[in-house]
């Protein structure tokens, strides 16, 4: 079978330009193949342009997505920054709490004036030794871990503070009770009469009941309060002569008699060891001495049991 060769397309388009005013008509012949080539070229250009536009839209969407993610990361970063600032403030507040606890611990030490309270007030801390072994994985805490840690430390600090406050209150009460308990000698000298029955110093040949102790020394020897309290009497009282009476609370009263001079006034608050009078021989007395007496709920008791 004989193959036929396709004939070339000889068609063409004629573009005619007709001017005004009777000028010559101008025509242009455009072969069909040029029209086809132009159409193909335009198609290719349109295809390339479409691809470019699609790629541009894809890149624009991708950039918008990345911008959105970046903004989200900035929001998260700002939030974490705020949280870290809050944690920093919480840590600073916690440090102030710990400083307050340390001050409270120091106050307790001053109250007891010893190291007996070390194990109580620092029970949460291990004792130091010469060993320094350490270890464990190196893990960086996140914000949640730090927040939990601060929360736990705050709870521990509050619990410790309440415990120390209760202990301080108990120790303060105990100290005040001890300070208000006659427990020191009110003056220096020789004990010439003790509590109880004794031979009469007046030479009557019979014994008498002595409700305190007599301490003899030179005229004017200082006399001090045996405990904290309130002066309820500072005057001349019969056989006691110049007498000072101090109420220490809890039904305890001390009496200091035969003074040459009273140095306090009723209503005055005095501290243990404070100068209140000077030794004398006023009232029923055979010489300079202090008559020291302790009464509990109105009954005289042996002062030696308090010394």
In short:
The protein is 40% helix and 25% strand. The chain is built from three helices and 14 strands.
Structural class: alpha+beta
- Helical fraction equals 25-40%
3D shape: rod-shaped
Count of discrete domains: 3
Mean pLDDT comes to 81
| Cα-based radius of gyration, to the nearest Å | 54 Å
Just give the CATH class of the largest domain: Mainly Beta
| Main sheet characteristics | 10 strands, antiparallel
**Residue ranges: pLDDT <50 for 5 or more in a row?**
117-129
Q: How many individual helices?
A: 3
Count of strand segments: 14
User: What's the architecture of the largest domain, going by CATH?
Assistant: Distorted Sandwich
Cα(first) to Cα(last) distance is 149 Å
CATH fold category name of the largest domain = Glucose Permease (Domain IIA)
Encode the helix/strand succession as letters: EEHHHEEEEEEEEEEEE
SS strand fraction:
15-25%
Write down the oligomeric state: single chain
User: CATH homologous superfamily name of the largest domain?
Assistant: Glucose Permease (Domain IIA)
